[in-house]
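Appendix B. Raw example, untouched.
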Amino acid sequence: MASIILRILLAVLFYLLVTPCGMVLRLFRIDVIEKNCKPAADSYWRDSGK
């Protein structure tokens, strides 16, 4: 019984937290993981700052 309640709770949390965040990011066209390629770029290397 607990595993069923846990799955329902996780599904509700997903649809109440993750889905609206994704919709807002898409609405404002925010690319969090920078998946778009830039053909003019010399390199995609990012310094870690260490």
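End of appendix B.
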